[in-house]
Amino acid sequence: QVQLAESGGGLVQAGGSLRLSCAASGSGGSINAMSWYRQTPGKPRDFVARISSGGSRTYADSVKGRFTIFRVNAKNTVYLQMNSLKPEDTAVYYCLSYVGDSNTGYWGQGTQVTVSS
Fold first, then answer.
1. pLDDT confidence bin for 46, thresholds 50/70/90
2. What is the bridge-based pairing of β-strands 31-39 and 46-51?
3. From the centroid of its chain, how far is CA 29?
4. For the segment 57-68, what is each residue's pLDDT rounded down to a tens digit?
5. How far apart are CA 68 and CA 83, in angstroms?
């Protein structure tokens, strides 16, 4: 079983920055791809960014040039550096990690990001 612990959310003014982190712990094998998603009330969870075990990155168009995903494999931790934040970035942000040979997906509990105008 793998647990994901997210942190770093909060309230920030438009144009500001936040850094989210997601640390994986427990047994289950190697950490493969790690991703961030976000969700607002009444809407589906949307993809934000993904980083493979080798470091390849993919971003949603809405965050390209503003958000950066990176990971520290020795800590089993993925980060999301969010710059130039906009009110429309307000959401609960979730970490998704794929683990082990079975590539099982695990979700974090979510962290709230609120951007005021």
1. very high
2. antiparallel
3. 20
4. 999 999 999 999
5. 8
CA separation for the pair 112, 117 (Å, rounded): 16
Of 101, 46, 100, 43, nearest in space to 76 by CA: 100
For 86, the 3-state DSSP assignment is coil
**Phi, psi dihedral angles at 79 (to 5 degrees):** -125, 155
Query: What's the full length of the chain, in residues?
Result: 117
For 7-37, what is each residue's pLDDT tens digit? 999 999 999 999 999 999 987 788 999 999 9
DSSP class of residue 100? T
Q: With b meaning 16 or more CB within 10 Å and e meaning fewer, what string describes 3-12? A: ebebebbeeb
